[in-house]
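Quarterly update from the structural biology core.
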Amino acid sequence: MAAASPFRPLTISPADLFTENLTAHAARERHFAARHQAVAWLRVAVFLGGALAVYLLLNRQQYAFGFGVLAAAYLVFVLVMRWHSRLGYQRDHFRLLGQINQEELDRLAGRLSGFDAGLPYVDAQHPYTADLDVFGPHSVFQLLSRATSRLGQDHLAAWLQTAGTPAQLIARQEAVAELAPDVTWQHEWQARARHFSKQADDPRRFTKWLRAPDFFADKAWLKILLFVLPPLALGSVGLWLSGYSLWVVAPFLLLMGAINHHYQAARDAYFDHSESMYDVLRAYRDQLALLEERQVQAPRLLELHRTLFAAADGTPASRLIGRLALIVEYFSMRQSTLAAFFANNLLFWDFFWMWRLEGWKKRLSGHRLDAVLEVVAETEALVSLAAFQFANPKYAVPELSAAPLEFTAEGMGHPLIFATERITNDFSTVGPGSTGVVTGSNMSGKTTFLRTVGLNMVLALAGAAVCARRLRVSPAQVYTAMRTQDNLAESTSSFYAELKRLRLLLELTATGQPVFYLLDEILKGTNSRDRHRGARALIHQLHRRPASGLVSTHDLELGELAGELPGFVTNYSFNSTFSGQQIHFDYRLTPGVCRSFNASQLMRLMGIAVEEDEVTE
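Predicted structure, tokenized:
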């Protein structure tokens, strides 16, 4: 399969392209499945035909001709078996390509439950990921991640957890712009790794172990025996088969068996560390070969290319990883107890492949192997961003602003809302000390809007496209306080949990780094008077820090801060209308304080008799 075929300009929608690909790949899968089945019968025919021919010839005492036919039949059988294996790979490859296109359609439709939720990265104490659904069920990680390896998932997660520097973000955007149109290459990258069922295992334990001292470092005598004893042992077996006493073989078997027994723990350790990496190494090998073959232009992709060849002293890294995979494969033959007994006690099988592994380590030392695997991990993350950008052509590539704490968005929507007509809003803030106070009735969209701003900022500062017609943003630390909850184990109320969260915000802003905060229903766990006083004091305090953000509230009196801090506090609102027994929301961000509330109407709908003058909202 071509590694980097030219991509065609996008003339149809991504959904139509994925559907078209799905149909084409299904047809190719059926084609290779039929050929695979036919060759399976050919294997049977070659085996039975060869066995029958050899039997007839030997039965007629035509031994020379019979063994010749046996050798020829074996050769044909091996060739047919390899052909059968290649057809099976091609069948599976088109099945995987079809699966990848179906997954793209699922993401576009918002069907995210079948994707990895990134649960290892869920952290309630993180400055923003828990509040913004970055990880977990129905999360941005599910929407973005096309990573097939654990290292790739970690790399993408790190980008979502920490804002990149301007230089890093520009480099990612350039790389993504080059990869995004080439859907064929993106899907080939993913499919190559998915052939191997355990390819997502974490290789870091293995790479750390590779940096340990070599087993043979202080055993020169054993390296000599490694090449002396096996030929002598095989020669003694030949003598025994020729009629000599079994005692000709016994000394070699006893000596080699004693050495194997003495170093049983070391042999097992080598096997335990390497056996689980077989699928991982083969997946990396195939993906690295694809990357090495690709002609790249983006500066960051060129750097990744140079890293691959520099790490292996000019030899393609895929070739060296492939050699390691082969060593691990041969070493794993010890899993067959009977075969391992004869192989180790006649050939020093384990020791030979341990020696080969240590020779491989000298070619690609531990830190250089880490560099190669890091290239795969970063490419996985870039492919994820590229696929996301391709699948959403109406999303904007954000502009980076040099102005402090700028966030200027046009036509911005929530990336995890998949309605046919997604409601979008414009919003802009520039400079430190600014707070947008967002008021509104219940369910009108205040919290969703705060998450919309936060998620798009996180995407932009990871290097991804954003759910907006246009977005201009400056790097900043995002900080949220939205889902504060009781903690019975720590005897902590939700109000106290929120106070702790706000204290961390103040500590963060005291460091001098720019912070963009999103505070939902601020101080909701106390009475209205204390809530107003506390919220007002907090906004005044944040005004003097290198911070800006949004605060949602039901406290209309907070709107008066616009007069106290003119030009720094701006009022926004989400409004609703009530007609008959229906509440209508337009989810549009509107300048000014909200004047339409719905709590009393909602209570009446639930059967609670409420007088107009008894309820204040």
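The chain is about 55% helix and 10% strand.
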